[in-house]
Amino acid sequence: MSLPIEDYALIGDCQTAALVARNGSIDWLCVPRFDGAACFAALLGDEDNGRWRIAPRDHDATVTRAYDDHTLILETTFATAEGRVKLIDFMPPRDDGISHLVRMVVGLSGRVAMSSETSVRFNYGATTPWVTRLPDESNGIRAIAGPSMIALRAPMPLEGKGLETVATFDVEAGERLAFVLTHLASHLPLPEPLDAERALGETRAFWRQWGERPVDAGPYTDIVRRSLMVLKALTFGPTGGIVAAPTTSLPEWIGGVRNWDYRYCWLRDATLTLFALMNAGYYDEARAWRMWLERAVAGDAADLRIMYGLAGEQRLEEWEIASLAGYEGSLPVRVGNAASNQLQLDVYGQVTGALHYARLGGLTEDDAIWPFQLKMLEYLESIWRQPDQSIWETRDGPQQFTFSKVMVWTAFDRAIKSAEKFGLEGPLERWHALRDEVHAEVCEKAFDVERNAFVQAYGSKALDASLLLMAIVDFLPIDDPRIRGTVAAIEKELVVDGLVLRYRSDETIDGLPPGEGVFLACSFWLVDNLRLQGRQREATALFERLVAVANDVGLLAEEYDPVAKRLLGNFPQAFSHVSLINSALGLSRAACLAADSKNDAIGSQEKTMRPEVVD
Prior knowledge:
This protein is α+β, with helices and mostly antiparallel strands. It has two domains: 5-191, Beta-galactosidase, Chain A, domain 5 (Distorted Sandwich); 211-614, Alpha/alpha barrel (Glycosyltransferase). The protein is built from 15 helices and 28 strands. It has a 15-stranded antiparallel beta sheet that branches. It has a three-stranded antiparallel beta sheet with strand order 26-27-28. A hairpin with a 2-residue loop joins β24 (495-496) and β25. It starts with 7 loop residues before the first strand and ends in a 10-residue tail after the last helix.
C-alpha cells in the first residue's frame, strides 16, 4: 500500500524522476523518460507492482529527511535503538544516455541491521522480468523483459526470494555502502560499474552550481530556490520541455475518478513559467522552454494542441491500466490524456503572451515565429466565438467559458503590443477592433449584475477561480469594481479553510462526479490579487498558509484536502511551484517598495504585478 502523497520526495536526472517514500521505498520510476512505462509502480498499486526499499530491519525506526542544501540529493536518516544510518538517494545527470539511480547507505553511529528489497516490474507493474546474475559479478543482477533492462549492482551478495531480489546486511559507523541501479536498452552491453562516490560529488556540484544563482525573494528565498529546483528536475533536458508532473493518476479526490496523466508539457503553463524563470534570473532555462514552445507549436495553426509530449509529440491517446488497483483504490489509472484533443481557446492567449514576454526579456527567437503567430491569430479570428473546454479541461460539452474569452482578448492584446514595441508587421487596425469586440462581449455576457461578479461562463451563475487572472493579465484594472466584486465573491464562496477551490464541483456540470480538493495554484492567484489590492498583510498570511501545506522537503502537489490535511493530485506539480515562485517574488518586491515609500502604496505595488521585463 502506498503512503500519503506528502510522504514522498523527488529525485531525478532531468530526463526522468523517481519518488522516494519516507520508509525508504522507491515506489515510482518511469524509464527511460518521464512518459515511459514505469518499472516501479507500487505508488499506484502495491509492492507486487514494483518497488525498491532500503531501510532498517527495525520497523520502529524514526525518520527525518532533507535535501542536501541546494541540490536534488535526498538524505533520509533512520534512528534505531542500535544506531543511526543515512540513506542518500540521487540520480546523476545523464551524459551518455544511460540512467543511473544511486542509493548510498552511510553508517552514522552504532551498528544497524538493514535490508534491501527490490522487485522490478516493467510496463507499469504488469511484466515480471527474467532475472539473472550479472556475468562475472557476484553482487549484481540483471532484469530483462523485451526492450528494457535493469542492472542492479550491490556491495554484498543479492539473493532471490520469491519474485524479489533481497539483501540483508549491517552498517557500522563510518561505513559507506553504494547500490547502483542502471537502466538501458536490453540489446546494449552493460556499462562499466559506476563510481558512486564520484557520481555523488558530480551530482552535488551540478545542482549546487545550478541552484546557487542569486535569487532574492526576501524571507521566501529558500522555498523559491526549492521550487526552482523542482522546475529544473521536471525539465526534459534534451528538449527543454517541462512536464506538469512526473506522475499519472494520483487522484484529485481519494477514491474518485479525477485521475489524469500529467507527464506531458502544457502550453497553458508557458506564460507563468517564463515569468517565474525570468523573474528569478534563470534565462537559460527560460530560453530552452521558449524554444521548446516554438518547436512544439510549429506547423499548421489549426493543429495547435493544448499539450504535447516531451519532444513535441502530438499523439497522446488515453488508455487505462486494468492491472493497477489505483492509489488508495482510486480508479481508473490512466496513461495518455484525451484532453490533448480538446479545443481550449485560452492557450492562444498563453502562447502569444509567452512569446511577447520572451521578447521583452531579450530572448532571441526563430525568424519564423512571428509569421507563425500571424497565422495563429488569423485562425483564432475564425474560431474565437466557438464554445470550448477551457482551462479546466471539462469532460462535458463545450461552453462559452469566460476565462477562454479573456485569454482570446489577451492574445490580440499581446500581439498588438509586440508589433508596436518591436516594429513587427501585422493587421493592427483589425486586431484593435477584435480586441475591443471581445472585451465588450465579456463585460456584457460574463458579468452577473445580481452577483456583482464575473461568472464561469456566459449565462452561468457559477463562480470560477480562473477569473482571478483577469486583473493579472490586465483585462481590467485591479481597482475596477467588477474585479473587486469577483474577488470578494470568490473569497466568500470558493474558499475552504483559507484555500481556493477551482469551482464548486457539486454545483458545476463538468462531466465527472463531484469531489476534489482545493487547487493550490488558484490560492496563489488569490495571494496575487490581495497584494495588488493593497491587502499585503492578508496576502502574506495566505501565502504562508500555502507554504505550510508543502511537505517536509518543500514539495507541493496539485491540490490539497483541507479536511483530511493531505496533498492530492499529481506530485510534485510544476504549476503549483510556478505559482509559488511568482507570488513570493511579488510579495517580496511589494514589501521592498512599501519600505521605500509608504505613499501611494497601491500604485507602487502595481509595478510588481508581472516580471520586470514587462516594464
